[in-house]
Amino acid sequence: MKITAVRAIPMSDPVPPERQHRTDLGTKVKNDAVLVMVETDEGLTGIGSSLGSPPVLCGVVEHDLEPVLLGEDPIFSERLYEKMYNGSRWKPALERGHAQPGDGRRGVTMEAIAGVDIAIWDVKAKKLGIPVFQALGAARDSIRGYASGGWAPGDEAEQELGGYAAKGFSAVKMRVVGRDGFSIENTLRRVAAARRGIGPSVELMVDAHGSLDISTAIRLARRLEEFDVDWFEEPISPDDHPGLAEVRRSTTVPIATGEREFTRFDFEDLFLHRAVDIAQPDIARAGGFTEIRRIAAMASAKGIRLAPHAWGSGVLFAASIHMAMAAPNCHILEVSQGYMPMMNELFVEPYDIQDGTVHAPTQPGLGFTLREDALERFKYIPGPEFVF
Ligand SMILES: [Mg+2]
Description:
This protein is α/β, with parallel strands linked by helices. It folds into 2 domains: 3-130, Enolase-like, domain 1 (2-Layer Sandwich); 136-374, Enolase-like C-terminal domain (TIM Barrel, Alpha-Beta Barrel), CATH 3.20.20.120. 40% of the residues lie in helices and 19% in strands. The chain is built from 15 helices and 16 strands. It has helices spanning 54-69, 77-86, 90-96, 107-128, 132-136, 157-166, 184-198, 214-224, 241-249, 263-272, 283-286, 288-301, 314-326, 341-344, 374-377; strands at 3-14, 22-23, 26-28, 30-40, 45-50, 142-148, 171-175, 203-207, 229-233, 255-257, 278-279, 305-306, 333-336, 353-354, 357-359, 386-387. The strands form 3 sheets. Strands 6, 7, 8, 9, 10, 11, 12, 13, 14 and 15 form a 10-stranded mixed sheet that branches. A 3-stranded antiparallel sheet has the order 1-4-5, with helices on both faces. A 3-stranded antiparallel sheet has the order 2-3-16, with no helix packed on it. The mean pLDDT is 97. The chain binds magnesium ion (MG). The site of magnesium ion has 5 residues, from loops.
C-alpha cells in the first residue's frame, strides 16, 4: 500500500448567538478544525484531524508533510512519524537512533503532524481489518467516561452538574471560572453547589484553563480539599512546570495537566518536575497516536495515570476513544458536554456511550464514516474562534 495524496480541509462549526457565552477564554463564536485525508493506491483513505489555525495547518500539511509521505507505506507508521518530525535529517535520525528535529518541533507543525498521524493509523488499521485500538494493542474495550462541562454561575452549578450525574456519569468536571467570573469564594460556592447536585460518591474535577497565578492556585487548592475534588486541572500557565510542582506540593488535591503540551519531551519535563498526577495529552497536539503511546508508557513508569483531553471534532473524539482503549494506564476519558455539532453530528454512526461508559468501535480503523453533508455543513469560516 502506498500513499498517493495527503489532503487538508479547513472546517468550522459556528456557535449560534443564543448558545454563545463568555468564559475566561472569551466568547466562543465557532469551533475550528482541519480534516486530514491520507489517500492510498489501494482505494483506502485514512481520516485524521488537527486543531489550531486552519489556513496555517493546511499549508503545513500540503507543503511540508505531503511531499515526505508520498509513495510511503502507512503500515510503517513509526517511520513516517520520524520522517515528519525530523524533517530533512530523518535518515540519520533513524540510522543513529536519536531525534534530530528541524525547526518545527512544536506549535502548528506538531498539530499538523498529529492530524496526519491519526489518518495514517486509521488507514493502517483499515488495511489490517481491525479497529485502531486493536492495532495499537488493546487493553480494554470499554472505559469510564467523565462529563466535561460545568460553566454555570453560582448555585446553578448544582443543577448543571447534577444533570450530568443523572445521565449516568460517575465522574464530572466543572470550570473554575464560571460564566459569572472568578473569585475564590465564588468558585467555592459553585463547587459546593456541584457537590450537592452530584452527591458524595460521584467524582468531581475542576479545570482552571491555566488562568490562575501560583499563590491563588495554592489558596484555592487547599480550600478545595474539603469538597473531595479528584483533580485540579491546569491551575496555572502550562509554561511554568516548576510553578505547577509548587502547587502540587502544597495540596492533597491531585494535579492534572497536559492538553497544551507537545511531544513526549514536554511531558518528560512535567514528569521530571514532579508536577503532575494525571497526564492529559491531546491527540491533536501531543503528536497523534504514535507520540501519545510513548507518553503513556513514560507516564506509567512514574505511576502517573492518563486521561486524554478530547475536544473539538468527531475525528479527535474517535481517536481519543481508541487511545483510551489501548493505554493500560488510562483510567477515564473526557466526554464533552459543550455545544459541539462537529463532534456529535459529523459521523453516520453514533458513539456508543451508555450510563457514562464509553464502548470501543468495532469497525476497522477509527470505525466512523463521515456524513455525506459534513464538508458542506462545516465549511470553513475565516476569523478567530474566540472574541474577547
Ligand atoms: Mg482542560
